[in-house]
């Protein structure tokens, strides 16, 4: 059952690297303005890195499944990885839109003229 141990180790390595990449991306986008746009810019790599897809009986990152299926089986088979990516992107966009709608806005200071 060595395959299962390699599979788990690969997932741990992938997740650690993905978290480090996202941490770096958050640091790079920190000075970005406005704040709502910054959240959408951060959403795209998070979706690409953390969305899973089922590849046969195993679970794999959807972007890797999409690229692998596109290169080996063609465009029709690549949809197996694109569907979860688009679903996660849509769900993230809806959550960010709801968050932006209900987020408290800073009040403008009144100035005496």
Written as H for each helix and E for each strand, in order along the chain, the element string is: HHEEHH
- How far the N terminus sits from the C terminus, by CA atoms, comes to 78 Å
Which secondary-structure class do the elements indicate?
Answer: mainly alpha
Total strands: 2
Rounded to an integer, what's the Rg over CA atoms? 19 Å
Largest sheet at a glance? 2 strands, antiparallel
Strand order of the largest sheet: 1-2
Mean pLDDT: 88
Helix run count: 4
Strand content: 5-15%
What does this structure look like?
With 113 residues, the chain is mainly alpha-helical. It has one domain. The protein is 73% helix and 7% strand. The protein is built from four helices and two strands. It has helices spanning 2-29, 35-50, 62-72, 75-102, and strands spanning 52-55, 58-61. Strands 1-2 form a two-stranded antiparallel ribbon. A hairpin with a 2-residue loop joins strand 1 and strand 2 (58-61).
Set down the secondary structure blueprint:
Elements: H1 2-29, H2 35-50, E1 52-55, E2 58-61, H3 62-72, H4 75-102
Helix pairs in contact: 1-2, 2-4, 3-4
Features:
single chain; 113 residues; mainly alpha; two-stranded antiparallel ribbon; 2 strands; elongated
Outline:
The protein is mainly alpha-helical. Helix content is 73%, strand content 7%. It has one domain (6-101).
């Amino acid at each position: 059952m060595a395959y299962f141990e390699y599979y788990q180790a690969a997932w741990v390595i992938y997740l650690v690297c993905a978290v480090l990449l996202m941490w770096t991306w958050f640091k790079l986008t920190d000075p970005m303005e406005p704040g709502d746009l910054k959240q959408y810019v951060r959403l795209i790599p998070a979706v690409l890195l953390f969305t899973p897809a089922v590849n046969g009986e195993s679970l794999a990152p959807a972007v890797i499944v999409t690229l692998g299926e596109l290169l080996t089986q063609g465009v029709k088979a690549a949809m197996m990885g694109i569907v979860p990516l688009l679903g996660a992107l849509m769900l993230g966009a809806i959550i960010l839109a709801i968050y932006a709608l209900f987020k408290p806005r800073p009040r403008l200071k009144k100035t005496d003229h």
